[in-house]
Write a structure and sequence with these properties.
The protein has about 120 residues and is mostly helical. It has a single domain, classed as F1F0 ATP synthase subunit C (F1FO ATP Synthase, Up-down Bundle), CATH 1.20.20. Helices cover about 90% and strands about 0% of the residues. Helix 1 (about 1-30) runs antiparallel to helix 3 (about 45-95) and helix 3 runs antiparallel to helix 4.
Length: about 120
């Protein structure tokens, strides 16, 4: 079980690093026309430095949002798997326990919603 979590976290981290480099490449390609203009303009343009810092902060925001949703959904899936199997086992022995066991599955699913809300706040703010 721990190997699965380690593999998933490693995959998420590798995708995040790839996303950082992709954001840099997209920003560089998008500014290729403006680089030709900057060659004519004097060096030390404050607007280009501001745009580079804004691109860096946007990349970090998107990676943070992706990690918030990804890790929350992984944790929620693990929790629902364990709680759901225990709830089904308990209900197979005593059918009256269904009303007491299913709310716990709903609470575990709420972890994913909290991750989504955190990601939304990261992107908006």
């Amino acid at each position: 079980m721990n190997k699965k979590i380690l593999v998933i976290v490693a995959a998420l981290l590798s995708l995040c690093v790839t996303g950082l480099f992709a954001e840099k490449v997209i920003a560089t390609v998008g500014n290729s026309d403006s680089q030709n203009v900057e060659a004519v303009a004097p060096a030390g343009n404050a607007e280009s430095a501001e745009a580079d810092s804004k691109t860096d902060s946007n990349a970090v925001k998107y990676i943070a949002a992706a990690l918030a949703v990804g890790l929350a959904c992984i944790a929620g899936g693990l929790a629902v798997g364990k709680i759901g199997s225990a709830a089904m086992g308990a209900m197979s022995e005593n059918a009256e326990l269904s009303g007491k066991a299913l709310p716990f599955v709903g609470l575990a699913e709420g972890i994913c919603l909290w991750g989504f809300l955190v990601a939304l706040l990261i992107i908006i703010l």
